[in-house]
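hey can u check if this looks right to u? its 242 residues, i copy pasted from the old doc so theres a chance i mangled smth
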Amino acid sequence: MDARSRSSRSSSGKAKASSRASSNSRAAKSSVSRRTAVVWTSLLGAMTLVGGGLLLLSGAPTPGSQGLSIPPLMALSGPSTVEAVFITSKPIQSNQWQAMVVHHSGSPVGTPASMDASARAMNLKGLGYHFIIGNGNGLGDGEIHVGARWLSQVAGAHAAGKDADWFNLNSIGICVVGDGDRQRPTPMQMRRLAQLTAALSRELNIPQDRIYLHNDIAQTTSPGILFPKEELRSAISASLSR
């Protein structure tokens, strides 16, 4: 083989090697780009999840079924953290609200949506309570659902008895999810109930002796024979004295 042929083959080999190297380089860059994209996507996803977690931990109210739900974390630092209930779509007329009535749902599980559906099945115009406090079955344990009636400052549809019309028009209906004839409310429910009723009492000048249980005004066991009435009274008194 002459020198010219060897030179030609050598040049051809170098060109192929250079081409393979270039191809490998492009493939490597493409692989790095893909890995980089995956890493950034994962990082952004993690940041989003962390941001969402921080938003929840901050206690920001979240929309609920025809109303607003306040997570239990909002109440951990004290009574002032339930002040979100005073942010309504219509101005609160304090002289409209002269009492409160505490109920139970009568069932171990309950959500604003299911209770709203039950109310409509009884030909009511949606959920009759102004507030619901969850027990962890359907609604978070200690979670306060602020109903559409409260947000719009509309009279309730929650009281029975001979003075039902007055109580529905002038009292705030609060329902604790659960069957108080079979089981006490959870400790978190009682804590939130005391905080909510104390805040409403303080803001709206409702005397403590006008915070009724439903069985105080009607022939019913609601909020249940196991409901700790004196515990609630003491907790409200302690909160109002701070």
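Residues 1-65, 73-80 have pLDDT under 50 and may be disordered.
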